[in-house]
Amino acid sequence: MKTSLASILLLAVQMAWATRILTPDAIEADIQERELQNVIWHLNHIAEKNGGNRAFGEPGYAASMDFILERARIRFADKFDTFVQPFNHTYDKTNAIKVTGPDGEDVYVVSPQYNPATPLPGGITAGLVDTPVDDARGSMCLEDHWAGVEVKGKLALVKRGVCAVADKLRWAKKKGALGVILYNQDPGTGYSVPTLSADSIGETVPVGIIPLDVAQSWQARLAAGEEVVVNLLVDSIIEERESWNIIVETKKGDPNKVVMLGAHLDGVQAGPGINDNGSGSAGLLEILTAVAHYDVFKHKIRFAWWGAEENGLVGSLYYTSKLSEEEVNRIKYYFNYDMIGSPDPVYGIGVDENSGIGGDLLVDYLVSKGKSAYKGGMGGGSDHVGFVNLGIPTIFGHTGLDTCYHQHCDNINNIDFEALTLMTKAAARAMAQFANSLEGVPERKLFTRNPNSRSQIVKNFRRWADVEKEVSKEKLCGHTHEKITV
Ligand SMILES: *[C@@H]1O[C@H](CO)[C@@H](O)[C@H](O)[C@H]1NC(C)=O
Ligand SMILES: CC(=O)N[C@H]1CO[C@H](CO)[C@@H](O)[C@@H]1O
Ligand SMILES: [Zn+2]
């Protein structure tokens, strides 16, 4: 029988792959910068085609999910099992916000996330009341600040800073203000958009955030005894929407020993979310693609792409809150990756006392590549929180904030591909090591810092569910009202 050279070669390649052993060196060599560029290009393109973002509740998120699923579920169907975990959360969007000054002038204004709507179409027209400034304790953050300030039926003019914006707005509502005009602490219009968080729904008044100099000119007129009448219009929707976590795991490997890697797939509404946090998603997808080529490793490898991180770590908290005790015990390690391609990268690997050698594996590799990597704290800003609270050994790999953080310019130009490639290689190496040996990995810590944190998370989900019920009631009222006025 004659065999062609091509078929012999093919057989050789298949045999080589069939027995390929997953090692840190082998998988490091598989991670290619141009493949990462390709994935980032796709995510950027998805944002561009879907209204400029990949946020929770928006079509760009669903398209991002399809992109990940195409690989995991279709291309590598024989290697991985895939689960899509649905969950619901409160979606919000400000469609329009407008502040009109006493002389009929339009004022520059931004709307925070979860800003409640004013009556429409007219908004709120009311006299402005200046409120005291307390930069030390935060202006209008505490109840005593409101003593003797008459805001009933008025718009309160309040300085931003120190405490959460939602705290100031809660007091304003309790004291009977119709709304708040919040002014920035520093001059200019380049200020960030805060979130009031879904927890504040129903507890705050509408707000518009305006520049310092505009507020100062109004304060001067108020101080001179003039009545300053302002209009605030907020046209926003708040409603329940479904989103999804994507969980993909190797068919091979001991199901009682799971090494897990996660990144959030969603971005904010303000931009394409390419470094934050498309970079983590891209890194994971490349690692998954590489893992598909190996057959020999001991432990199960599980990947997670989380939804709605930007809305308060919702997807990952949902996942961790739904795990049974048994399922929790099977997860031996969790690696979280978020913003791993920052321009001007800072290689700070977040660890805590329960991270074992996970942080060292990344730091040592990055240092060997000439980077000044170091271990730092993990903070509470990303999807590791639910895992840390369960006592699972965890690290948080990232390359620091960038100047386009949560902005329109967080696009394909906002990536340092060298950093992204190095971080992905580091992540793949650490994963490969733990996929074969858990030496240097501590046991799950049963006495976590806060034993109530799990029940607290469950409580949060109940509270959100209640909020959603309230909101849908309000929505109905709004509709009736609209019909009457039309
Ligand atoms: C989300 O909400 C929809 C509509 O209320 C409901 O049908 C669905 O079952 C909910 N999904 C989850 C995961 O709770
Ligand atoms: C590394 C890093 O900064 N990641 C960010 C990804 O997005 C979340 C939510 O905005 C931030 O809190 C994280 O800090
Ligand atoms: Zn973010």
Automatic annotation (TrEMBL):
Zinc found in the keyword field: yes
Signal peptide limits: 1-18
GO terms of biological process kind: proteolysis
CDD domains assigned: PA_SaNapH_like
Any GO molecular function: metal ion binding
Matching Pfam families: PA, Peptidase_M28
SUPFAM superfamilies xrefs: PA domain (SSF52025), Zn-dependent exopeptidases (SSF53187)
Record-listed E.C. numbers: 3.4.-.-
The protein's enzyme class: hydrolase
UniProt domain PA: residue ranges: 137-216
Keyword Transcription (UniProt): no
Alphabetical UniProt keywords: Hydrolase, Metal-binding, Protease, Signal, Zinc
Family in the record: Belongs to the peptidase M28 family. M28B subfamily.
UniProt protein name: Peptide hydrolase
Record organism: Chaetomium thermophilum (strain DSM 1495 / CBS 144.50 / IMI 039719) (Thermochaetoides thermophila)
